[in-house]
Structure formats: C-alpha cells, structure tokens
Amino acid sequence: GAVVSQHPSRVICKSGTSVKIECRSLDFQATTMFWYRQFPKQSLMLMATSNEGSKATYEQGVEKDKFLINHASLTLSTLTVTSAHPEDSSFYICSAKRGGDEQYFGPGTRLTVT
Amino acid sequence: LAKTTQPISMDSYEGQEVNITCSHNNIATNDYITWYQQFPSQGPRFIIQGYKTKVTNEVASLFIPADRKSSTLSLPRVSLSDTAVYYCLVGPANQAGTALIFGKGTTLSVSS
Question: Residue B37 and residue B53: Cα distance in Å, rounded?
Fold first, then answer.
C-alpha cells in the first residue's frame, strides 16, 4: 500500500511559540490531504481538508488562523500550529489520497505544549 | 454520512474469535462499510471494506446482512497484538476529496 510519513513524530514546544508538522506521501501524488486531531482516549476529529494548490477547507470550530495548512505540492502538506497553548497538545494525524483512491494515514505527530 | 454505533469496549482472550458489531441504520445505497484498526500513538490502518454479504481477507472477515443496517467484523483467533481500537465507518467508497469521518470506535483488549 501507499506510504504517508509525518515529521516530526514527537515535538515539545513552549507556550506561545509556533510549530510546523510535515506530511508527505512517499510513493504517490496526493491530490487531497486531510488533517485530524486526536485527544487521549477519543476518536479522530477531522480538522481540515486541503487540495494541492488551493486553500484548505476547515471544519466548523477549527480556527484557520491558528492552524495554518499549506499544500504546496502533490506530495507535501504542512500544518503549522501558531501561538501554541497547552490545550493544543494532542496527537495530529494526516492522511492523503489520490483522486478517488483509498485514504492512507500517516503515523501521527505527538505535540506537547508546555 | 450514516451514523454508526459500536460497543465502547470488548474483552477477549488469546486464541478466541472476536466479533464486533456495528449498527448503521441510515446507510445509503451507495455507502460502503469500512473498518480501521488503530494502535496507541499510531495512525489508523485499513482492515477491510465491504458492500454486502461477506468479505474475507488475510486479517478479518466482514459480515453484512441483506438489509445492510449492521455489520460484523470478525477477527479469528486473536492475539495480544490485536489489542487496539477498531473503527467502523460508513460512506461512499473512495470518493475524491471526501474525508473519512470516525465515530467513537471499539476498544478491544486481548488478554493471555
């Protein structure tokens, strides 16, 4: 199956700083990438959908100015958490799909804001 | 997207067969049923997908009755490594630009 990677796998940052998470499709071109957030013992919550070369579509309740998503190429999407606060600490998972193909998930990034 | 209902948790022992049932009363004609597995601190992994009757692969079987209002994921002879959260998802199969929406999932705990 197709491989999606995320970097970093874990990151710790101080409150008020920004952190960038990368999501790459390693062996296919992803026309659409998705970002999810998962709090402990909860399900995955879709944050946003991004198509290459266009602005991301954010789910209701997700602050687009706080969670900046860039999908500059068919193999890379980035999520930047700006002015992070402890309540942003979570597990962030990206996924990617090519057209109507299956959706492939990355391994996730654990963000801890101190 | 059709809403799904699964048991919050299930317990089993190694070597047993585990059946996890998912209810989806409002499933649409073009909806498929897909199951994902998630280990702690990992992304979800595709297990199996089906539309009707029975689907089997090297990992699991999926049973779907004629009315398609429910489905059962069957894991044969589970091992400790099958301890994970299992999600049942219902929606159009692989629709371009459409994200998978996850429900609460079933936490399966396998003991020795």
Answer: 21
